[in-house]
Design a protein that fits this description.
The protein has 150 residues and is an alpha/beta fold. Helix content is 33%, strand content 13%. The chain is elongated.
Length: 150
């Protein structure tokens, strides 16, 4: 009796695992783009600064928006000062040194900024930065610094 010896077939290109990886990456990027848009939901007019520079975005940074009326928003949800404190406390307990970006409207009263900073300090959040926009000028050039006004 003669048995046939099976010929070894060349391995083929498996597309199913590649499609799985592509769809997972697509889901990841869609979810990430949604979270990055939350900080711009609120119309906050930032103050301008000549010395402001665009920093590298840090992974996982939290953006706290304060509008002109003093309303505090995080991830598109309006929070009271107590709710902000509760969230900051949980954040500091889980992730010490978590970066927080404060976007405060230029027309907001100073007391609203101090209230948010006070909540951060009370809940052991110390890694704060402030968002500003570039200098405003009609021709797009930065105004020259005034040596008399330092």
């Amino acid at each position: 009796m003669k048995f046939r010896v099976p010929q070894s077939a060349l391995p083929g290109f498996q597309i199913t695992p590649m499609l799985d990886v592509v769809f997972l990456l697509l889901c990841f990027f869609v979810a990430t783009s949604v979270y990055s848009q939350w900080e711009n939901e609120i119309s906050v007019r930032l103050p301008s600064a000549v010395s402001g520079e665009t920093p590298d975005r840090l992974p996982g940074e939290i953006v706290v928006n304060v509008d002109a009326a003093g309303a505090i928003r995080v991830n598109g949800r309006e929070l009271s000062r107590e709710e902000l404190g509760t969230r900051l406390r949980a954040l500091a307990a889980s992730f010490p040194g978590q970066p927080i970006v404060l976007r405060v409207d230029r027309a907001a009263r100073y007391e609203h900024l101090v209230a948010v900073m006070d909540e951060c300090r009370a809940n052991d959040v110390w890694n704060l930065s402030f968002a500003v926009q570039g200098p405003e000028s009609g021709d797009g050039a930065a105004p020259a610094p005034d040596p008399e006004n330092r």
